[in-house]
Amino acid sequence: MNEALQVKEERPDIRELTLAEFERAVVGSGERGFRARQVMGWVWGRGAKSFEAMSDVPTAFRNYLKCNFKLGGAPESAVARSHDGTRKLLVALGDGEAVESVIIPAGERTTLCISSQVGCAMGCEFCATALMGLRRNLAAGEILGQIQAARRYLDAGEELTNYVFMGMGEPLANYPRLARVLETMTADWGIGISPRRITVSTVGLVPGMERLLADFPTVNLAVSLHATTDELRDRIAPINRRYPLRELIEACRRLPLKRRNRITFEYVMLREVNDSASDARRLVRMLAPMRAKVNLIMFNPFPGAPFEGSERAAVEAFQAIIRQGNLTATIRESRGRDIAAACGQLYAERGARRD
Ligand code: SAH
Questions:
Q1: How far from 214 is each of 208, 236, 242, 257, 331, CA to CA, in Å?
Q2: 3-state class of 129 per DSSP?
Q3: Is the per-residue pLDDT at 353 higher than 90?
């Protein structure tokens, strides 16, 4: 090629593409299909920051890639570190918005908590992200960019082992992008993560749950339940008016779970709101016929939150009742509260927005 390279203005970010899509473009350009896999290997396996760096790719094809695709490295980010080892990242997006992601070490595991939207439209009364409203969906590349960003803040010898979609946003309200992300995360041409190490948490968007498990049968599902009556759930998690408890629980019962899989039900413990013995007994009756486990979450306060967390004794009494009902019940301790990185405290604002 002698002429100057014609770099297209509007070129897709390669992180947005699945292998099949990229292969079509590659073959369309006259190159052989196997080059697509080779390039994806550079992007996801070796973390190449430019097409130039792909030394075993022919120069002419590298030029084609440069003109037709973008390849961003890890996005810009800043980090705050908790005394418990939790790290909260503020990850910058191209348009001046930002999202938060959290690295949570616990024993042998290091979990990355990923955001799926800027803000959230679900309006849960106990969650700080709800106060932002929904600003926009994240693109697949922006969701995956959080993994690239997080890798920069790992300690020596530390590796990400688990991934939870429990950051800002409702992942199933951004399903097309989530599906792309899950494909890239789990594919051998992508990041190659076992789907068993990935959990998608939802406030209970029934059609999305069904689709997720049809498309990714071995990904773990967590459902944010938080209440055992429609009266209360309508108020604290208003999506309940669209998918009320009976419909939600019936959908959960019908989900095609793989052999060893169980659905996790998350339940944030709110003092004198949902933490009584009768709440616990109703929860057992609701979940007992299912392969379910319950994760009791300590409430994490944020400025203006209209709730208080339950007393420790109330949480333990609640846990005991669930266990007597032959369900597994764990207590999720707060992590990273000192840096407002705990569940429900994510509210990206600091310095990242330009308006
Ligand atoms: N939208 C998804 C995922 C994000 S929230 C969902 O609703 O599941 C991840 C978990 O943190 C959810 O179970 C959510 O209900 C919980 N959470 C939200 N605010 C909280 C708070 N202030 N304290 C403790 N947990 C909270």
A1: 10, 29, 22, 10, 29
A2: helix
A3: no
Name, in order, each residue with C-beta under 8 angstroms of 247's C-beta and a sequence gap of 6 or more.
206
Of ligand 1's atoms, which has the minimum distance to the CA of residue 127? 19
Whether 252 is catalytic is no
CA 298 to ligand 1 centroid distance, Å:
10
Q: For residue 266, what pLDDT is reported? A: 98
Place of tokens 């590796």: 159
Q: Per the residue annotation, which of 23, 97, 100, 142 is the catalytic one?
A: 100
Q: Would you say the pTM of this structure is higher than 0.90?
A: yes
Task: Find out whether 227 and 126 touch, Cβ atoms under 8 Å.
Answer: no
The Å distance, Cα 173 to ligand 1 centre, comes to 15
Reported as a single tens digit per residue, the pLDDT across 3-54 is 578 888 889 999 999 999 999 999 999 999 999 999 999 999 999 999 999 9
Q: Residue 273, by phi and psi: left (phi above 0), alpha (psi -120 to 50) or beta?
A: alpha
- Ligand 1 and 199: CB distance under 6 A: no
Query: Rounded to whole angstroms, how far apart are CA atoms 162 and 199?
Result: 8
